[in-house]
Batch of 2 targets.
Target 1
Amino acid sequence: MADKIKLFVNGVEVEVEAGKNLIDAVGAVGIEIPHLCYHPALGADGNCRMCLVGIEDGRPPLVPACKTPAMAGMKVLLDAAHIKKIQHDVMELELINHPTDCPVCDQAGECKLQDYYMAFDQAESRMNVPQVVKGKKMDFGAGVVHDQERCVVCGRCVRFCRQITKTGELGIINRTDDARVNIFPGRPLSNRYAGNVVDLCPVGAMTSRDFRFKQRVWFLKKAPGICHGCAKGCNITIDHNREKYKDDIIYRFRPRLNEQVNGYFICDAGRLSYKAENEGRLTEARLGNKARPIDDVLAACTREIERAEKIALVLSPNCSLEQMAAVQALAEKLGAFLSGYSDGYIKPGDGDGYLIQDDKAANRAGLGLLGIDCSREAFESAVQQAQLLINFNNDLTRSYKESDLKKLLQGTKVIAVSSHDTPGTALADLAIPVASYSEYAGSVVNCDNILQSFAKGLSKNNDLADICAIAVQLGSPLGSPKERFALLQQSISALKDLEPDKIPAQGLNLNDSEAANVTA
Amino acid sequence: MSDRSQLISTGTPFQFDKERDAEFERLIKRYPTRESMILPALWLIQEQEGWISQEAMAYAADRIGTFASKVYEAATFYTMYHLHPMGRNHICVCRTLSCWLRGKQEIVDYLKNEIGLQPGQISDDGKFSLEEVECLGHCGTAPVVQVNGEFHENMDVDKLKSLLATLK
């Protein structure tokens, strides 16, 4: 942990972390210094002048907090009359050419300009000259739509493209009150993280083509989650809402800070992966291709299990550790071979060394930790010998062409326990719908061996069972979360002395506990 | 200030001529980073073409190895870079203190009334363009007019008339 220092804010002593600037240091203890251009991931730029504070040690009356390191004994003034005046004046300056179209602006409700106006300004406009007219709804590419008039020219988006993605598509064109953000003609945003400029924008200048006009943000419920788009396991906020008479659906994913995993950002593919949580879902249990009550289908499954001499099980590398444990115990009980074969989830060469990984599965490391075989040979020979294959949400059409898959499954009955209605599910003789990752709690291990647990994000009108529960109904002996966790504790030494609810919010780094030991 | 973000495309790729190419390579050795060449490269383009097109900016960015957005920023920030074609003869009239006091307005008014040339505009025949500029550094011989980069000092309307007559 970093050293602590004591300083004074408005005469009150506070203890903060050393080595940070004033905004971050006192922000961490709940004192907000208003700022527009500063962002911890992009550094201090000092252009917005919103964070000006007073420091009583003989320096000039106004200093930018973003560029001032917190020092022991510092006397910081936030509520002096001259500070309040400068905050008011900066707000007035920012609002001179602002269209104030909050009622139709997507950012309303999470807009810094709006918040700061209410906090520091609240004055009528004194403008009596025409406002500067600039570009509206400009297509910047990569699903980003820009409104130059709403922009406060803080340059966060420009710095993001230059410092983080190093693609530099955006620039600040012209100067003075004509300054505006633009792309060079014919060179639009073309990086795989472009959606982050929408989150970074403190106002409504950058909007997402995908999200705009879909929901007012104050209606959205925010649930923390883990992105299952690839092996990185980026931390996300799931913004969802149940409109009257409708089902609870997800409207967007936003990045959630985790220094250990993804920092402040997520990739665009992950951002848009929320769509798969809403669409293409398997919602009904099926016998053949007819919808049946789930109890009938489960009973039919039990009969098939009793009838089959040899059974093979296959798991998705996206399943949580708890689901894997439950299915592993089921395999043991049935004397069945359990495979985690899922090479089709890997897209070689797609990773970029930053957040995006080749492996498009969230918990392949979990398969390794539990000692589950992932080889193609073992999977195929097990399927060929078995009369019954129970598939826990593994989309085999990602690993096989449909014709090859049909050939492989010839003479084998298939039970698909599936969250999505994929072509693979359609081939199954029996299908059982289950919850997807935003609808259950669990934990996953990412590509850097960091174990992260997540809570259930949202409840559907017709809430589907977790794979754990289905595994239990099919005969898995691990009936309770406690029993499943106990099995995980046997396989993962880092969990041995931990209570299930004591997994740190930033994730548990299994590399630290020297033995990320595989008990195989 | 005015909006200078609308770039004009020529539809043909830009390239330095031999002389500017050599000059570019000579200058780039002077600077610690290649990005320092943004402003000199824009000057070279303007020297060659009289103005800076979208293609020329893209060329400069690629040649320097920087983002086109950075070149775009610099070119739109400084009003001395011309972002549209100018007249065959570009007339700059100094509008700073000494020249103003010594009668720059008479010169501008003459150009306005007799040739129909407004500051920032090109004459209909494309022969002249006029720009009012900040101090040209010849205050001792004000007012000063710069035509195609050449200085003409102690100007008055009569001298301007005979000067214009020599221009093609």
Note: Chain B has two domains: 18-77, 89-166.
Target 2
Amino acid sequence: MVVGKQTLMGINGDEAVAYAAKQALVDVCAVYPITPQTIIVEKYAEFVAEGEVHTEFVRVESEHSAMSACVGAAAAGARTFTASAANGIELMNEVIFLASSIRMPIVLAVADRSPSGPINIHCDQTVSLAQRDTGWIMLYCENAQEAYDTTLQAFRIAEHADVQLPVMVMLDGFVLTHTLENVYLLEDKVAHKFVGTRVPMEIEVGGQKIPLKLDPKTPITIGPLALFDYYLETRIQHHEAMERARPVISSINDEWAKLSGRKYGDGFIQSFEVDDADAVIVTTGSTAGTVRYVARQLRAKGKKVGLLKVRTFRPFPSEKVAEILEGVPAVGVFERTHSIGSLGGPLFNEVRSALYDRDKRPAVLGYYGGLGGRDLHPDYFETIYKELFKVKQTGELPPRPVKYISHRE
Amino acid sequence: MAKQKPSYKEIPAAAVAWKPATDYKTGDWRSKRPIRDTEKCTRCLICWVFCPDGAIHWDGEDLTFDLDYCKGCGICAQECPVECIKMETEE
């Protein structure tokens, strides 16, 4: 594969996202700082101050205002970017629903941090996963390189004519946001060509095709009242747009691979040694790196273990996940979140549900851990693989399918 | 049979309104309508200023209530200094 010249930089995940946003030629960035996302804001503010970007940088007074300003700017036709974390995402929640409902292709970087309380600034994915029904496309990154690559891809996916939906790019707090890694950046001109120019969505109003854009020449009302008579129809349109994003996410992942030499599976899932595996761990984000390390070591000892990393959580790749996992004897779903009062967490429920209609359903166990930034040691995953092997050998399932790990008993 | 409303495939994407707000006759929300005593009324236009729906029209000589949009809130009756507006329950 012939790829263009790239610059190797020692940067953290937050900086990687800021560089990607810089190369994406963002028109408007309305953003409020919050740990562990702050470096994104600081770095981007530096680009603005140095005149390296021609972005309207809006210093808003809250995250609710940040997303509101992004919606306004996007409605005016601007390419729009913002970033936040935990409590900030919770505060912008009202406008997060609105942005996707009125089809504003905003890119939001989420530095995953545990929700309060007790107050905590470290990593888990509870807050971003709680956004799963907001109608946004959700992409989870494993490392700083993927954060850079995915942020640039996010603009293309969001603004694609068939999609026109906002995209969240998740990077694990501190594990990725504050950890220095080697990251390859594309040349500016190559990145600029890749993202292109934003073309507003075309809508048909009264038999006339016009751009979805606030323009005095073609006045429209964006975000009007729709009650029991029309609301449901608008929601089904939104659902269909999300379905149309599926081929787009894959094709942009392929296009990126040609440019950069880096490919993330089919854009949705990335599997490692799953073909003949007796036990597979499914996970997302930076944990996938740790599990891959463990799986590689166990493979060297002849153990048939594999990893399935879920990169795209919305739209969820149910078919693809089921295809890979059908026939595997035992599957463990590890989540850096929990769902109190539910059988399992969001990823566990998706994976198990995806397998329900399959003939050869695996035993699926769920694991919660690493909440509040609790370090995820490779030993935990070795233990999970051991438990999965035991299930395969004995055929016996534990009384409850989901449990916590990494805590003190 | 009443004409069926458009399907989700027919309405504009992104929930953009495809007709002006004036096409929605919000006056049918009203449970009380304003009745003005034209003898008592001094045409001071305080009601015209206060109407939150712009449903009171002034043609330069006299006032009319636009019942297509008047939601019957009664602010005009409350604000009228000569108390010439009464709110009457709709049938």
Note: The radius of gyration of chain B is 17 Å.
